[in-house]
């Protein structure tokens, strides 16, 4: 019965979005600009730091759930050249990342790891006892750190030195990509292909768009415009409820994991996971 109600709730949330599918007709293209050498080791997530102008890459370097100590973080230049392959070592299977005031926050299976960027050292490692498969990270303007647990169907909050459960909404089947906005979070559910908005105060999930399979990373390129990278090897442009595929690398057996959009450069940076490289695309809109 609970499962039926959850499915019914999803239908009701997303039923009203279908009438808006053609509201915005924007031609968006992704053109390859550069690709790194294939020396990365299962790159899962990327993030750009405008303070030092480096692109940071989390490398699983093994199995995604293996606590083997093989994981590391790389640094790339904006042109795709690898500055430091193993900038920070000693992680297990690092995934999502967020940056706030000189600190890099990284999920690592069952831990949230805090790295001091200036010294390239692990400052703190916080074990979340209930964690099953920690995944993406986002940080709001106040420095509150939100991160998903795709395995346990939860979203956690790290605030004032403490981790708390932010939500375990039954609509969330496999929450992955997450993005902090001014008044809410945007969440892509990898298990259902549904894109949600979650109000900070009420935590209520509101449907934004659907049919986005395997969603991994969420990026905002302007108000009401988003790019969502999907692990199987697709990238989608979302404008309100309108969804358009702008990249498909499945035939080349290249994944599109937790990507990052660099504002001002019109550059979409995509980690290819098993492809062991990072690829950057120029995004144009007409």
What this model shows, in words?
There is one protein chain. By secondary structure, the protein is mostly beta strands. Mean pLDDT is 93; it is low at 1-5 and 16-23. It contains one helix and 24 strands.
* Succession of helices and strands: HEEEEEEEEEEEEEEEEEEEEEEEE
Distance between the termini: 47 Å
Main sheet, how many strands, which sense, barrel?
4 strands, antiparallel
User: Which percent bin holds the helix content?
Assistant: under 10%
Low-pLDDT stretches: 1-5, 16-23
User: Order of strands side by side in the largest beta sheet?
Assistant: 1-24-23-22
Structural classification: mainly beta
Structure summary, number of beta strands: 24
> What's the overall geometry?
globular
Instruction: Look at the structure and give the mean pLDDT.
Output: 93
Quaternary organization: single chain
Q: Provide the β-strand percentage band.
A: over 45%
- What radius of gyration results from the CA coordinates? 18 Å
SS summary, helix count: 1
């Amino acid at each position: 019965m609970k499962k039926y109600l959850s499915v019914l709730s999803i239908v009701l949330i997303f039923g009203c979005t279908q009438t808006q599918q053609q509201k915005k007709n924007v031609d968006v293209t992704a053109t390859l600009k550069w690709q790194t050498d294939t020396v990365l080791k299962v790159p899962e997530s990327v993030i750009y730091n405008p303070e030092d102008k480096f692109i940071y890459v989390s490398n699983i370097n093994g199995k995604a759930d293996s606590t083997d100590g093989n994981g590391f973080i790389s640094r790339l230049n904006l042109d795709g050249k690898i500055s430091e392959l193993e900038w920070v070592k000693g992680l297990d299977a690092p995934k999502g990342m967020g940056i706030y005031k000189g600190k890099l926050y990284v999920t690592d299976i069952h831990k949230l790891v805090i790295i001091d960027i200036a010294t390239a050292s692990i400052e703190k490692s916080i074990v979340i006892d209930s964690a099953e498969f920690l995944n993406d990270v986002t940080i709001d303007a106040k420095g509150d750190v939100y991160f998903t647990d795709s395995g346990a169907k939860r979203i956690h909050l790290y605030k004032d030195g403490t981790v708390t459960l932010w939500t375990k909404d039954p609509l969330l089947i496999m929450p992955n990509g997450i993005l902090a906005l001014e008044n809410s979070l945007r969440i892509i559910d990898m298990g259902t292909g549904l894109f949600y908005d979650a109000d900070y105060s009420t935590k209520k999930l509101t449907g934004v768009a659907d049919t986005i399979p395997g969603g991994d990373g969420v990026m905002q390129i302007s108000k009401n415009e988003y790019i969502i990278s999907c692990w199987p090897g697709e990238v989608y442009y979302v404008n309100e409820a309108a969804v358009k595929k702008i990249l498909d690398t499945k035939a080349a057996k290249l994944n599109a994991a937790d990507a990052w959009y660099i504002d001002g450069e019109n550059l979409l940076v995509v980690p290819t996971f098993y492809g062991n490289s990072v690829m950057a695309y120029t995004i144009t809109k007409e």
